[in-house]
Design a protein that fits this description.
This protein is mostly beta strands and 291 residues long. The two termini are 33 Å apart. A hairpin with an 8-residue loop joins β16 and β17. Strands 10, 11, 16, 17, 19 and 20 form a six-stranded antiparallel sheet that branches. A five-stranded antiparallel sheet has the order 1-7-6-9-2, with no helix packed on it. This is MATH domain-containing protein. It comes from Erythroxylum novogranatense. InterPro entries: MATH/TRAF_dom, TRAF-like.
């Protein structure tokens, strides 16, 4: 990536006077700051610096590093445009290691462009190159994410007998285990929240979600259904929710269906005083910071 900017490189720069003489005498110049310059291009195979200035960054003091060392670096190499008073920067990011201690650009700038004083890079046979180096240090944080489509044992069918006679404010199904998590259906037969007194409220609960760690969460895409004797008339709705230790651990619909539809026997939802509710996990994603 090539950009221009007003301010100089923060790490180091080299000013070269009588550049043409340096180019005649030195195929390669290695600065004290480990900037490698090929004034007439690096043409040693497999490099491809013909007709270009070649410029590289070399890592220093590798003898003190462990045998299997590696350093990830985001770096910019610069040349100063003395007419525009700006720095042309060429940027890359590379992994330095014991088998590759030098990275840079075979074709940093065409020699013809560089040598033409009207372009501003070589003026009075003087030029300036430079570099900025940012070492990328891994944070040590790894987040593991695992998504399952149609998880095994992901459907619970719950038959609720004596439904018309229930006076409970809340019912809970038996548990079912899917993707190493325990789930159940929570149901308010007379409604909850905005559904109180007028709707059936149904939710899917992640049991013991409060025991999830602060860097752990579970996402579920699921369907809640109230079954009808006529399969084409099932009431269903689909939901998605991230379960964490902080939030209420049941999620669903306050107003899944009107209570008046349940109270009419000919509607086909309550059969022999039994209501059947289902929950089906469609996708489950687990996310956790493991290190």
């Amino acid at each position: 990536m090539r950009t221009k900017r007003d301010f100089p490189p923060k790490d180091f720069a080299i000013r070269i006077k009588q550049f043409s003489l340096l180019a005649k005498k030195h195929e390669k110049y290695e600065s004290f700051t480990r900037l490698w310059l090929y004034p007439e291009g690096n043409t040693s195979p497999p490099e491809n610096g013909k007709d270009h200035i070649s410029l590289y960054l070399a890592i220093q003091d590798t003898d003190s590093l462990p045998k299997t060392w590696e350093v990830n670096v985001d770096f910019k190499l610069f040349v100063f445009n003395q007419i525009e008073n700006k720095y042309l920067a060429v940027q890359d990011a590379k992994r330095f290691h014991e088998m590759k201690t030098v990275w840079g650009f075979d074709q940093f700038l065409p020699i013809r462009t560089f040598n033409d004083a009207f372009n501003g890079y070589l003026v009075d046979d003087t030029c300036v190159f430079g570099a900025e180096v940012l070492v990328i240090k891994p944070s040590g944080i790894l987040e593991s994410i695992h998504t399952v489509n149609e998880p095994s044992n992901g459907v619970l069918t719950w038959k609720i007998p004596y439904f018309p006679k229930l006076v409970s404010t809340i019912l809970e199904s038996e548990e079912f285990t899917s993707e190493n998590k325990r789930w159940r259906i929570r149901l308010h037969p007379n409604g909850y929240g905005p559904g109180k007194g007028n709707s059936l409220s149904v939710y899917l609960q992640l049991i013991e979600a409060e025991k999830l760690g602060p860097t752990e969460k579970v996402w579920a895409n699921f369907e809640l259904r109230v079954l009808n004797i006529d399969k084409d008339r099932h009431v269903r709705d689909t939901f998605s929710h991230w379960y964490t230790f902080k939030e209420f651990h049941a999620f669903g619909q306050h107003m899944l269906m009107p209570l008046e539809d349940l109270r009419e026997p000919f509607k086909g939802f309550v059969v022999n005083d039994t209501l059947t509710v289902e929950a089906e996990l469609l996708f489950v994603t687990g996310a956790k910071v493991v290190s």
